[in-house]
Structures are given as structure tokens and as C-alpha cells.
Amino acid sequence: MSGAETTNERPLTAKGRCTRRRIVNTASDLMVERGVSAVSLDEVGRVTSTSKSQMYHYFASKDDLVAAVVACVRDRILACQGDLLVGVESVEGFRGWTDSIVDLHRQAPGWSGCPLGTLSSELVGEAGHDRLDVRQAFDSWHLLLTHTLARLQVSGKLRTDADPDRLATATLASLEGGLLLSKALQSESPLAIALDAALDHLRTFAAR
Questions:
Q1: Is the Cβ–Cβ distance between 150 and 181 less than 8 Å?
Q2: 6 pairs with which residues across the strands?
Q3: Which of 190, 50, 196 minimizes the C-alpha distance to 114?
Q4: What pTM was estimated for this model as a whole?
């Protein structure tokens, strides 16, 4: 049973799961917006009207909460990306994916970058199990792209000599780099250009 369903190795009630989920969702928004180090357990408790004893009932430490936040952000991204990628039936079909990503971030309040990338800038390289969770979250995203490309290869839309794993890495790197530059420059142009370049690269492997 996952940590989202237990506390101190005891199953949570339906009400407890709902409360924990509400805390994690709020903490995720706060930490992505302001940074992990700037958000304390006490502040999350105040914002969610959760007492200190309740906070420590659901989370043994801040590291425990941060690990839950990383999982929450990962699940949000995978749900969104899964919805966008399921309809990709050809290499050219990735144009809808790239356009949707730019549009999603255009609608966001400011160019805030990638939520997972924002967390990783603080967490990767430090000691703690949540740092490993960041890498695993990116692995899950990479795997989603790899599976999409492998599906196109099986259907004959991608060349047999293409390497879906390498193409997924290049595509995800372009996306993350574009998001970082768009955040720094507060402009959609870097993200759009980076995704255009990724699509141009994918097109070179389209089956003729």
C-alpha cells in the first residue's frame, strides 16, 4: 500500500486520505511557486487550517511532505502529458503536442517554467529520498515519451533505425530548456523555438 494511503503503517480512512490529499495539493502549489526551502510545515498547516499535531500525523517530517509534493507534481504532469500524447498517431502529430504545451504555459500566470524542473533545482544533489523521487519522476515522463515513439515505430510511422529512448531524451531536454529560458525571459519565444527544433529533429526519423 502506498504512502498516500497509510500513516505510521496504518491505513488512512477515506476522510484521512482526503485531508492528506488537500494538504499535499496546497503544499505543491506553494513550493512550486515560492521554493521548497521557503515553505514550512507550519505555514502549510496554517493555509490548510490543519493543526500541528494533524500535520505530524500525516507527515513525519518536512522531507516526508516534500516527497509527497514531488509525487503530486509528477502525477499532475503525467496525467496532462498522457492526455496530450495518447492522440499522437504520427511524427507530424507531435505538432499538436508542442502547440498544446505552449498554449498551456501561455495561459498560466506568468511564464513560471516546469513545476518539476523548479523542484529539481533545489532538490537534486542533496541528501534525502525525495531527491531520488525527482529523478524517478523525470524517468516516468521520459518513459511516457519513449512509449509514444515506440508505438509510432511499431505502427510503421517511425523509421526502424530510430532509437525511441534517445529521441525521447532529446525531446524532453528541448522542452525543459525551452521552459527554463521562457521563465527567465518571460516570453513564449524560447519554448516555441525549442519545441520547433525538437519536432524538426523528430521529422528526420519519420518513415517515408
A1: no
A2: 11
A3: 190
A4: 0.86
Ranges assigned E (strand) in the chain:
6-7, 10-11
Angstrom distance (rounded) from CA 54 to CA 58:
6
- Summarize pLDDT for 168-178 with one digit per residue, the tens: 999 999 999 99
What range defines the domain where residue 15 resides? Answer: 1-60
The verdict on 78 and 26 lying in the same domain is: no
CATH of the domain at 17: 1.10.10.60
Q: Which three cell numbers stand for residue 50?
A: 490543519
Q: Which of 202, 185, 205 is nearest to 98 (CA)?
A: 202
- Domain co-membership, 17 together with 115: no
Distance of CA 9 to the CA centre of its chain: 27
Same domain, 143 and 42: no
